Amino acid sequence: MKVAIIKYNAGNIFSVDYALRRLGVEAEITGDIEKIQTADKVIFPGVGEAETTMQYLKEHRLDEVIKGLKQPTLGICIGMQLMCQSSEEAANGNVQCLGIFDEKVKKFIPNAQINKVPHMGWNTITNCQSPLLTSLPENPYFYYVHSFYATLGKDTIAQTDYIHPYSAALHKDNFYAVQFHPEKSGAMGEIVLKNFLELC
Predict the structure, then answer these.
(1) Which among 89, 119, 171, 183 is annotated as catalytic?
(2) Which of 49, 181, 190, 200 is catalytic?
(3) What are all long-range contacts of 133-139, with beta carbons under 8 Å and residues at least 24 apart?
(4) Catalytic annotation on 181?
(5) Which residue of 1, 103, 121, 131 is surrounded by the most CB atoms within 10 Å?
């Protein structure tokens, strides 16, 4: 099985590669369009900022490549957010993202009860509704680091509550995405990665 991890101007890509190696999978970290298009599975991970990252993807034609993928594709953290319609993480208003999912990405606004942003640390996911999240125990914990979140919508397959409920995971056609970091979430994260690798 050929697994491609999309290489672009984002951090934390190599930790996904290490997590896959622990599962016995040798992935290729690449920005090569042909290698991405011909992989059996594609992972679009990363930590970064939406506006500059979208600009990079467009400059390297990776935006159209990602949208055109037909094989199972998994977005992680900023990868998930960039697969949504738009993001508030922009200098002036919203930045248009890949538009794979119908949900929008908004900025956390602290309230009187919770005043810490970014959302950093362990939190549970609930209402799991996808083969990507099968075999998980009830209300499993995953690791998060983010200041922006995807709204709840028709593509939501799991949610987390921090300040308010939001999409912890999304699914549409061959595209899957998670806001949490499975590569940093221990045994629960390994289950999610294994589930993704086993998707048809």
Answers:
(1) 183
(2) 181
(3) 133/157, 133/158, 133/169, 133/192, 133/195, 134/195, 135/191, 135/195, 136/188, 136/191, 136/192
(4) yes
(5) 103
Q: Which residues pair with 145 in a beta bridge?
A: 120
Burial degree of 121 (CB within 10 A; 0-12, 13-18, 19+): exposed
**What is the phi/psi pair of residue 95, to 5°?**
-110, 135
Q: Are 90 and 50 in contact (CB under 8 A)?
A: yes
Q: Which domains does the chain have, with CATH numbers?
A: 3-197 (3.40.50.880)
Token pair recorded at residue 48: 């970064």
Query: In whole angstroms, what is the distance from residue 174 CA to residue 70 CA?
Result: 6
Residue 119 is among the residues annotated as catalytic for this protein: no
Please determine, for residue 11, whether its predicted confidence score (pLDDT) is greater than 80.
no
Residue 174 has pLDDT above 80, yes or no: yes
Report if pTM > 0.90.
yes
Specify whether the CB–CB gap between 19 and 30 falls below 8 A: no
Is it the case that residue 191 has pLDDT exceeding 80?
A: yes
Separation between Cα atoms, residue 159 and residue 165, nearest integer Å? 6
Residue 68's φ and ψ, nearest 5 degrees, are -90, 0
Our answer to whether residue 146 is catalytic in this structure is no
